[in-house]
Amino acid sequence: MEQAVIDTIYVDGEFVIPHGTELFDLHNPASGKVIGQVRLADEVDTELAVAAAKRALPEWSATSREDRIDALRRLREAVVARREELLEASRIEYGAPVRNEWMVDSAVGAFDGMISTLEAFAFVREVGSATVEMVPVGVSGLITPWNSNVFFIADKVATALAAGCTTVVKPSEMSATQTQIMTQAIHEADLPRGVVNVVTGRGEVVGTTLTRHPDVPRISFTGSTGVGKVIFRESAEHLKSLTLELGGKSPSIILDDADLEAAVPGALFSGFVNSGQACVAGTRILVPEGRVEEAIEIAVKHMSEFPVGDPSDPATVIGPMVSERQWERVQSYIHRGVEEGARILVGGAGRPEGLQDGYFVRPTLFADVTNDMTIAREEIFGPVLSILTYRDEDHAVEIANDSEFGLHAYVFSADSERAHRVASRLQAGRVSINGGYEPISPFGGFKNSGIGREYGAYGLEGFLEVRSVMK
Ligand code: NAD
Q: Taking 90 as the threshold, does the pLDDT of residue 333 lie above it?
C-alpha cells in the first residue's frame, strides 16, 4: 500500500486540514522503511474538536436507547465494510501477522458487546424511595495506544456513544493509517456532526489539551502506566472522571495437577499474544518446583509453534516490534535478564536469522528467573517470557501478587474448583482459568495497572454520572 501524507483530521463531521503543521514519519516495522507521513494536529485543532463535541452534546445525550443502538449498528457495519483495508493497514503500519484477524474482528465485537449491553442496561433504578438516574458525563476524551488501534477506538467510541456522551478521540500518532480508515468508517456511519471527532497528534500536545480542558469532564485512557499517572495529575484540577487502562506483568500459574502438555503451550500463547505487545500478556510463567524440568522440556518443544517472520506470511505468529525504539527496549531487557543471572532457553538478543531489516526480535524464553529480577518486574512489551518456580500454592499466589501491576492472570489446573480458589486470591482485574474468556466481563487493573473498568455494563457506567432524585 503506497502511502502519501495523511493530512486531515476529523472535526465536526468533516475531514479538515489541521492547524498543526508538524509532519511525523510512519514506518513499516517489517522493513523499517518510511511508508508515509501524518500531519499532526495541535492545541488549536483540539480546541475546535472539543467545541464541536460540546455543541453536539445536548442533542446526542437526549437520544433514545434505540437511536444509540441504531448508531452502533451503523458503525459496526461501516467497520465490517472496511475489514480488509483495516487488516492490511494493521499489517503494514503495525506489523500485525495476517493470521491476527482479531485485530479488526475484536473491534466489530466491541460494537456487538455494547449493543447487547445497551439493550439490557437500566439507566433508571429505584433505591429505597429514590429514583436513581444514570446520565451521560459529557464530552469524553478517548486516548489510545498503538498496539490494537482499531479495537481501542471502537471500544471507547462504542461505550461513550452508548452512554450518550460525545467524544474527541486522540489516537496514537504511530497508528495514523489505521486511524484514518477507522475515521472514514465512522464518517460513513452518518452520526450527527460533532458526536465523534478524531484528532491525531502528540500526547503532550493534543492529549494534554484534553486532560486539562474544563469542557472535557471525562478521560478514558489506554496506555503506559507512566503516562497514566501524568494524566491522573493533569486531570486533578477539574476532578475528571477517569478510566486508566495501563500496563501489566501478568502471571500464568500452572498448578501442580495441570496437564503440562496443554498448560505450557497455553501459557506460551498467553505470553506471545499480539507479538508480545499486549498489556494482558502472561509474561511470568509460574511452575511447581518439582515439575520444572518437565515444563522446560515441553516449553522448548512448543516454542517452534510461535515462529517470528514476515507478517504477510500466514505461518507467522510473531511479527516485528512496532518501532525501533520498541526493538531497542526489548533488546535491553534481554541483556538485563542475562546480566542478572537468568538462563536463555530459546532466543536471545539480536535479530532472528534471515530477518535483518525491520524491528524483528527473537522470541525468547528465560529459565532460572526469580521474581526480583528486572525481567520479572517490568513490562517488556515484546516476546520475552520468563519461567519461575514456586514451592506450593501459597507461594505461587505470593509470587503472582508480588508485582506493582495487577491487570490479568492465568491459572491452569485439572481441577476447576481449585483453580477458582487460587483465582480468588489473585490481585488482578481479570483471571482466565484454562484459557476461559468473556469479552463483556469487566476489564481493568488493580494497583499500577489502572483505575476503573471497561467493557459491558461496568464500562458503560464509567461514562455515566449518577443522580439520585428523592421525593
Ligand atoms: P503511551 O502511554 O506512550 O501512549 C498512549 C497514548 O497516550 C498515545 O496516544 C500517546 O500519544 C498518549 N500520550 C502520551 N503522553 C501523553 C500525555 N502527557 N497526556 C495525554 N496523552 C498522552 O503507550 P503506548 O506506548 O502507545 O502503548 C503501550 C502501553 O500501553 C503499554 O504500557 C501497555 O501495557 C499499555 N496498554 C494497556 C492496555 C490496557 O488495556 N490496560 C492495553 C494496551 C496497551
A: yes
